[in-house]
Amino acid sequence: MTPRDPLDRLLDSFAARLGAEAVVRDAGRLHVYAGDGSPMHDALPRAVVFPRDTADVAAIVRACADARVPFVARGAGTGLSGGATALDGGIVLALNRMDRVLAVDPVDRTATLEPGVRNLAVSEAAAEHGLFYAPDPSSQAVCTVGGNVAHNSGGPHTLKHGVTVNHVLGLTLVQPDGHVVRVGDGACGYDLLALLTGSEGTLGIVTEVTVRLLRRPETVVTLLAAFDSIEAASEATSAVIAAGIVPAALEMLDAEVVTALRAAFGFEFPGGAQALLLVECDGVLPGMDEELADVSTLLREHGALSLRAAHDDAERAEIWTARKKAFGALGRIARHYYTQDGVIPRTRLPEMLRRVREVAARRGLRVANVFHAGDGNLHPCILFDSDDDKTKRNVLEAGAEILRHCVELGGSLTGEHGVGVEKREWMSTLYAPDDLAVMARLRDALDPSGLCNPKKVLPLGAGCGELSALGRRAAL
Length: 476
Ligand SMILES: Cc1cc2nc3c(=O)[nH]c(=O)nc-3n(C[C@H](O)[C@H](O)[C@H](O)COP(=O)(O)OP(=O)(O)OC[C@H]3O[C@@H](n4cnc5c(N)ncnc54)[C@H](O)[C@@H]3O)c2cc1C
What we know:
- This protein has helices at 6-18, 27-30, 54-67, 119-126, 145-151, 158-161, 192-196, 230-242, 255-265, 288-301, 313-324, 326-333, 349-362, 389-408, 427-430, 433-446, 464-475, and strands at 23-24, 47-49, 71-74, 91-94, 101-105, 110-113, 131-132, 168-174, 180-184, 205-212, 214-215, 219-227, 249-254, 275-283, 306-310, 336-339, 342-343, 366-371, 377-378, 380-384.
- It has 476 residues and is of the alpha+beta class.
């Protein structure tokens, strides 16, 4: 009899606890868990396990720690930066079976959720109480609240309501050694909730989240404005914010996206439309007409060719469909697209979009832009058709160049897709070695074995070990 591989024995023990169907080991099925929506960062896990509750997660993590097997949490796998992929022969803990809405409290206006609950399901559960959950990633129909916490996700309505960290009240965490802790819930002391939100699954696995719910606004008005250039639409964006108006959402789509939407779904836009701006205002009824009039005037003054207003849910859904189908439309005009995620000060939008065009032209690539203009969060989508390494390298380098421009213009490397594997090496363009060393020391303190989602977020170039050594030296 051949001796069993230690990992096989570990997986057998998981199967005994969870049931054989909850442990995936065959290569064909493992491919489903190799990527996270990006065509660039696939890595095949050794196995995928499906825990049912916090106790299961704690037991699996403890066993992995004892056996020195790396592990990574996974929600819906829509992160796009390679964050949910298993490196170093690790296993994936897929949290999709932990998908119960545990409680909705309409009096306290909170919801308590398992991590695998879909983002949209939170607002659906809260709707009967006239409440909603504000962070609304465009992937909200599938992405999970665990992934949202790990990426500190936002969405079109982030502009007014803030990102996930502004709405998480407490959470339960399985630490990298398997211990379970509860953080937040109004406690004083260090703000561990803020530390964990956005930590990309590198400091433990979130197994329960309590979030704040907001009352649904009394009234919502959505406008779709067409412009003859992206520059005009960018100027209009700045003008609205400079006037002291904070719309609930301010989203932009460029000419490439407009063309793709026309071709794919037959959307009708005015003839000369080279850019679309979607503006949504919400609030109480008195004052809304005035706000709408002010926004409309500003958009016209800055060159809007046409304005279309939606006043009810059906009309609004029609306008949002154009925004939400943008990525689908791009998928029809190119075999692959690589979506970048950078942040710049809003006032630098025209300059940044010009630089994006220059990068694309110099490298012979097509780029489409669909993004959260209000908070300067860009998503240049680089379109490409070939699978060859040369093309992929060109696309990756274009993405890196675009992000370098974001940093140069005073922005940041990611607004919502995380650092993951993709941007890990670029962190040193944004942070000084001492700053990175503090992060590395923090990570060392919370995950001394380095098994929890290894090789993500912090650069390997300088060597994570070297960085933490640098941190330790700084502490002496
Ligand atoms: C078409 C499209 C549109 C998008 N639009 C937006 C947008 O508008 N706003 C936005 O913010 N993002 C957007 N994203 C990115 C992505 O959907 C979000 O970042 C989302 O929050 C990821 O959730 P997920 O469940 O898919 O996480 P995954 O991709 O599964 O995981 C992401 C990271 O979170 C970690 N993680 C997952 N669950 C847990 C857990 N329970 N505990 C600890 N760590 C965990 C993983 O290890 C990984 O590092 C978009 C993606 C796509 C494909």
